Amino acid sequence: MKRLNTFIGKILQASYDLMPASAKKAYKGHVCIDATMMPVRGQHTDQRAIFPDDPEARTSPEAMAGLYRDGQTWGYEAHLVVMTGDGTRREQDDDFPYLVTAYALDKPGAPGTNAITCLRSLAERGFPTGILVGDRAYLPSSDEDVLQRPALALGWEFCSDLKVNQMGLQAELNGAILVDGTWYSASMPLHLRNASITHRKAMDKASNMKRGAAKEAAKTEAETTYQKALGLRERFRLIPKEVGRSDGMDRYSCPARGRKPTLACDLCPLPKNDGRRQLPLFPVNGPLDRDGLPVSQPDTICTQASVTMPRGTAKVAKYIQKYPFRSEKWYRHYGHARAVIESYNDFIKNGNKEALEDPDRRRVRGYARQALIVALMVFSANLRKLVAWAIRQASPTSRTKGRRRPLAAENLHNFLPIIVEAVPTEHPPDKRAA
User: Fold this and answer.
1) d(Cα 264, Cα 282) in Å, to the nearest integer?
2) S-S: 402 plus which of 90, 93, 165, 242, CB 3.0-4.6 Å?
3) For position 412, what pLDDT does the model report?
4) For residue 315, how far is the Cα from the chain centroid?
């Protein structure tokens, strides 16, 4: 299996190596991973009547394939890792093409295992590490010992969505609290800790309402309240002192400390106001426990200038994120990455091209043959992406900095059909008439 994965990596590496040096330099290592179902050709027979204890009791020529979550489709799941930007600039599409740099093939239902297989393949080939984006099946729902901890050790950071039961307070360490993937002061009140949960429930309630002005007003109110809560959260966010160390030991300080504090806490002396402070300090009475009650004995975040917060701790590794959840940077990066991967999935499933989902394009038996054919399909799609990107680079209008090319002022008369007047044709005299 390892030799097969190495060979597949070299096939995809060949398409990446065709990129010019300027494009490789512009690429910062950000990726997005997603899985797509690939049905296999042929019928499988239901054997659950004979083996009632086995929910996957099927007979099929593809023994290493599996049953998809719809309960009907038998096949493989292809996990594709696509290059992305960070979503901060619209003209990023011209910096480099969005290619698949790694992929893994497996039976459905093992996102974490296949994701770390892809990341290790990238590490073996010397790819830069950046921010990993995946849907909730990958992050944060995977077992942290399978995906998050090994990925953090390789140097990756995360940006992901959360289920409602994963929101709110996620971990506590050294007197600080991890809420929605970001470290905050434990003095943050309960309604701010649970802001994402409250927002999700309010949006679900509004979605179930009948169409009309009341429904839109409820959604608008829920979103406005949520954005205000996120703004207040920033006052409680820990101040990063040294983040991103290779050993995973990040250092933070309390937001009530430093030259520009955002909180006024009785446990920290206020610095002298030099006139540069723009916002009034938010008063707090010290750290709170899970129930919002004052803590009798403050922890090290309250008594030391800074504390070490190891990213490898179980719950921390599972939920830690690069950006505050649902912040502007989070929206830009996550939205951009998800749009890129969905676009590539649609691109490679084109029925007139690779047709990745069509089992008739893969009329072979056996895991290795299926894996190699998919690798060649991805290589072909990468080449088409490269050619399209190169054509855009050669176009004089491709580098319009974030602006669309303006429409030319065309006169509508230019689109009228050309009418040719009939010219009488002179025929030679008829000899028979003479």
Assistant:
1) 6
2) 90
3) 53
4) 20
Closest CA to 61 of 363, 400, 312: 363
Question: Which backbone phi and psi does 226 adopt, to 5 degrees?
Answer: -65, -45
Helix, strand or coil, per DSSP, at residue 29 = coil
Please state, in angstroms and rounded to a whole number, the distance separating the CA atoms of residues 128 and 83: 11
Distance CA 52, CA 42 (A): 23
Q: Quick one: pLDDT band at residue 264, thresholds 50, 70, 90? A: confident
Strand 157-160 relative to strand 169-173, pairing: unpaired
State both tokens at 31: 């990726």
The values of phi and psi at residue 347, to 5°, are -65, -45
Tens digits of residue pLDDT in 64-76 = 888 887 777 888 9
Domains of the chain, start order: 1-162+325-408 (3.30.420.10)
- DSSP H or E run through 369: helix 367-394
Q: Which two tokens stand for residue 101?
A: 């740099």
How far apart (Å, rounded) are the C-alpha atoms in residues 136 and 165?
12
- Report how far residue 126's alpha carbon sits from residue 116's, in angstroms, rounded to the nearest whole number: 15
Question: Strand locations in 189-347, DSSP E?
Answer: 239-242, 249-253, 263-265, 282-284, 307-310
Give SS3 for 184.
strand
Tokens representing residue 314 in the block: 């179980």
The model's pTM: 0.85
CA distances 31 to 85, 208, 383, Å, are 8, 35, 18
Q: What's the CA angle centered on 304, arms 300 and 305, to 5 degrees? A: 140
Phi–psi pair at 336, nearest 5 degrees: -65, -50
**412-428, pLDDT tens digit by residue?**
555 555 554 555 556 56
